[in-house]
Amino acid sequence: MDISYFDFLMPIHWFALAMVVLFFIALYLFYRHRKSDAFLLKKAWQEHSCEHMKDAVLFDGVDSYLFADDVVLLQGKILIVKRDESQGYIFGASNIHEWTCVKNHVTGKFNNPLEKVGHFVTQVKQECDFDAVIGCVLFGSQATFPKGVPDGVLQMPMLADDLEKLKGDKQQHDAAKAAWDKLTQMIAHDKTKVTL
After folding, report:
1. Extended beta strands in 15-97, E state
2. For residues 116 and 121, what is the distance between their CA atoms, to the nearest angstrom?
3. Cα dihedral: 103, 107, 112, 114 (round 10)
4. Cα separation of 109 and 44, whole Å?
5. DSSP 8-class letter at 68
6. From CA 19, how far away is CA 92, in angstroms rounded?
7. Residue 49, CB half-sphere, CA atoms under 13 Å: how many?
8. Mind listing the pLDDT tens digit for each residue in 23-75?
9. Region for 148 from its dihedrals, namely left if φ exceeds 0, alpha if ψ lies in -120 to 50, beta otherwise
10. Neighbours of 86 (CB within 10 A)
11. pTM of the predicted model as reported, rounded to 2 decimal places
């Protein structure tokens, strides 16, 4: 290709062309970030939670510890969330112990993640004497459920809508806040400091 074809472009034209290209690259990266799971999660917590704790550790009352990625105070409920990084096609149900994940024609099995979050929910209900505690497992946007989404599963693209449905009764807020305050006194926030 004859480079002399571009001789009519002055340095200022090259600069302007470079700025236009950079603008479109920045626009693409901004759009991509807005669709990322991290952005969607942060936005959902900001808009739909009253208070939020990450990486919660709770003593089970016997000889072990329970872990939750997020503990969230909603309008009239406390939500316990375990995040699951599984990608691909997920097959499972709340009453099935072993779930299946299929990605790139490779099949894997994993334990029902709802079981662990259920233990955390039970402990919170007992310790805080508050029944409006729910547990969910949150899957990222790279996970799909071809045979239906099991009860107790949240998906990142619909997280904001799901939190709106889960928020609970406004008249329960004082009771939820009292339970929350009690819970914050019992929860540790650093897994590395917990002796297993």
Report:
1. 51-59, 65-73, 78-84, 88-91
2. 9
3. 10
4. 30
5. E
6. 50
7. 20
8. 666 655 555 544 578 888 888 888 888 899 999 999 887 878 999 999 999 99
9. left
10. 18
11. 0.76
